[in-house]
TrEMBL record:
<comment type="function">
    <text>Heme-binding protein able to scavenge peroxynitrite and to protect free L-tyrosine against peroxynitrite-mediated nitration, by acting as a peroxynitrite isomerase that converts peroxynitrite to nitrate. Therefore, this protein likely plays a role in peroxynitrite sensing and in the detoxification of reactive nitrogen and oxygen species (RNS and ROS, respectively). Is able to bind nitric oxide (NO) in vitro, but may act as a sensor of peroxynitrite levels in vivo.</text>
</comment>
<dbReference type="InterPro" id="IPR012674">
    <property type="entry name" value="Calycin"/>
</dbReference>
<dbReference type="GO" id="GO:0020037">
    <property type="term" value="F:heme binding"/>
</dbReference>
<keyword id="KW-0413">Isomerase</keyword>
<dbReference type="GO" id="GO:0046872">
    <property type="term" value="F:metal ion binding"/>
</dbReference>
<dbReference type="InterPro" id="IPR014878">
    <property type="entry name" value="THAP4-like_heme-bd"/>
</dbReference>
<dbReference type="GO" id="GO:0062213">
    <property type="term" value="F:peroxynitrite isomerase activity"/>
</dbReference>
<dbReference type="InterPro" id="IPR022939">
    <property type="entry name" value="Nb(III)_bact/plant"/>
</dbReference>
<feature type="domain" description="THAP4-like heme-binding">
    <location>
        <begin position="12"/>
        <end position="197"/>
    </location>
</feature>
<comment type="similarity">
    <text>Belongs to the nitrobindin family.</text>
</comment>
<dbReference type="InterPro" id="IPR045165">
    <property type="entry name" value="Nitrobindin"/>
</dbReference>
<protein>
    <recommendedName>
        <fullName>Peroxynitrite isomerase</fullName>
        <ecNumber>5.99.-.-</ecNumber>
    </recommendedName>
</protein>
<keyword id="KW-0479">Metal-binding</keyword>
<feature type="binding site">
    <location>
        <position position="158"/>
    </location>
    <ligand>
        <name>heme b</name>
    </ligand>
</feature>
<feature type="short sequence motif" description="GXWXGXG">
    <location>
        <begin position="21"/>
        <end position="27"/>
    </location>
</feature>
<feature type="binding site" description="axial binding residue">
    <location>
        <position position="190"/>
    </location>
    <ligand>
        <name>heme b</name>
    </ligand>
</feature>
<comment type="pathway">
    <text>Nitrogen metabolism.</text>
</comment>
Length: 199
């Protein structure tokens, strides 16, 4: 499946172009002694002209026949290349970026390639229940590997200490896998899914 790069895509989002759109599919979740449960997920990656992707994932539990039962959770956040921000970049707060992007074209973006031939990435995700994850990792072609650099928890949040995630494009489908460390247990399999592009 060819990857389309929108003509209005901010240059530094070109490595993420294969993620753009809405994806939907099924997977399984569980952890440790918690029983594996089937779920359906809809994931959206959108761009708005700024140098980051907006991400939202809505998850619904399924019954034994594969029919939706009830909402399970939602997560949302931002995906971007990991680089030192400059005066022309957005923030802090509501301070707007310069009209012309800091990275103006492919040559500027190519200079960000790491020693492994990919690009360092930064992902910030928020969850209901008072948890925020900061992931660092790499995007190399149609594959992203992430590991938490920090997990922030509200006073009443459930115990959750770290996680890793992997996303990959295989024969046009988006596969992902998530391992986590929670409840005092070590890093272990938590969830995975196979999603098809629907828009």
């Amino acid at each position: 499946m060819p990857i389309e790069i929108p003509s209005d895509l901010t240059p530094e989002l070109v490595p993420f172009a294969w993620l753009l759109g809405t994806w939907e599919g099924d997977g399984f979740m569980g952890y440790g002694e918690v029983e594996q449960r089937p779920f359906r997920q809809r994931v959206t990656f959108e761009q708005n002209g700024l140098p980051f992707l907006e991400y939202r994932a809505e998850t619904t539990l399924l019954d034994e026949e594969g029919q939706p039962m009830r909402p399970a959770t939602v997560e949302q956040g931002f995906w971007q290349l990991d680089r030192t921000l400059e005066d022309g970049d957005v923030g802090p707060g509501m301070l707007p970026p310069d009209l012309v992007p800091v990275l103006k074209g492919a040559e500027d973006v190519e200079r960000l390639r790491n020693g492994d031939g990919g690009f360092d990435v930064l992902v910030t995700l928020t969850h209901p229940g008072g948890i925020v994850e900061l992931y660092l990792g790499q995007i190399k072609g149609p594959r992203i590997d992430l590991a938490t650099d920090a997990v922030v928890r509200a006073r009443g949040a459930k115990e959750y200490s770290s996680s890793t995630r992997m996303y990959g494009l295989v024969h046009g489908d988006l596969f992902w896998a998530w391992d986590m460390a929670a409840f005092g247990e070590p890093l272990a399999t938590h969830a995975s899914a196979q999603l098809k592009k629907i828009g």
